[in-house]
Specification:
single chain; mainly alpha; 10 helices; globular
Length: 283
């Protein structure tokens, strides 16, 4: 595959920032191919196509991480090694998210209506459950935490059952967050687009910065939790495929994967707290 040949796991972990470009590229290709071939269902097809582009790299990275599990590294050094893979996933996610956001902002309204239909409806459904001051209530906190835990469980199950299923969940989240960021930026830019003076130019940069910062506060720990969960499920899945089940090596894999799952639970809790009690302070 052409995209697969662009980068390998070793280079990706050594230079994770490269995955920002790849994520943006994969999202852009998936978006335009989805719109060109399956325009009626492009909002979902583009997620599948973006996921397909990332599958070879992600699969090879997870295989590499499973081999590290079988090494003599202690828990601290093993987590440091896993951090390299998590950096790759994070840069890919950021690149894909900004790719979707960028095209939402620059494409004409006639295209984005159908191109991001499902994502827009998802955002509308989420916002309909959050109104007024109730946003900071404990009830909303539990609802958001419950929803994030469901996504986390899906990441584990999809990774275990399908091997790379978590990358689809993460790409879907990238498309939703990208549309949310893009919609905010597009709406605010339309409000200040009356003039082209220095003040309005400064306003453009301010809007873009605010649009990004609005979702970064709670978005980073939330996505990290999904990465930890997906990595844990993927490592266990590959260990089962390699028939390590029932051996002492498998017990070590289960222990290390349990630590990854505990970390994912910690980050998903932090993300919910930030989303409900911190983000509203600024926005």
């Amino acid at each position: 595959m052409v995209l697969e040949s662009l980068i390998n796991p070793l280079r990706a972990e050594a230079h994770p920032r490269i995955l920002f470009v790849h994520g943006f590229l994969y999202a852009s290709l998936g978006l335009f191919l989805g719109y060109w071939i399956f325009s009626v269902h492009a909002s979902l097809i583009m997620v599948f196509l973006t996921t397909m582009a990332a599958i070879p790299l992600v699969y090879n990275i997870i295989k590499t991480e499973e081999k590290k599990e079988l090494s003599d590294l202690d828990e601290t050094n093993l987590l440091r090694e896993h951090a390299k893979a998590l950096s790759v996933f994070m840069y890919y996610f950021i690149g894909a998210t900004l790719g979707f956001a960028f095209w939402y902002v620059v494409l004409p309204s006639s295209m984005i209506g159908g191109l991001f239909e499902v994502q827009t409806q998802t955002i509308t459904d989420i916002r309909s459950n959050i109104t007024g001051n109730s946003y900071q209530s404990f009830k909303v906190f539990t609802e958001i935490l419950s929803n994030n835990l469901k996504v986390l469980i899906f990441c584990v199950l999809f990774s275990f059952i399908y091997g790379l299923g978590a990358i689809f969940i993460l790409t879907w989240n990238a498309s939703v967050i990208g549309v949310a960021i893009g919609n905010f930026i597009r709406t605010e830019l339309q409000m200040i687009s009356g003039g082209l003076n220095l003040q309005s130019a400064a306003g453009y940069f301010q809007v873009i910065s605010i649009g990004l910062f609005r979702y970064v506060i709670h978005g980073i720990p939330e996505i990290l939790s999904y990465f930890f969960a997906g990595l844990a499920g993927g490592i266990i899945s590959i260990a089962v495929i390699r028939h390590d089940f029932g051996t002492k090596k498998y017990e070590k894999i289960i222990l290390d994967s349990s630590i990854l799952l505990l970390l994912s639970l910690f980050f998903v809790l932090v993300a919910a707290v930030l989303e409900v009690y911190v983000t509203p302070i600024f926005f």
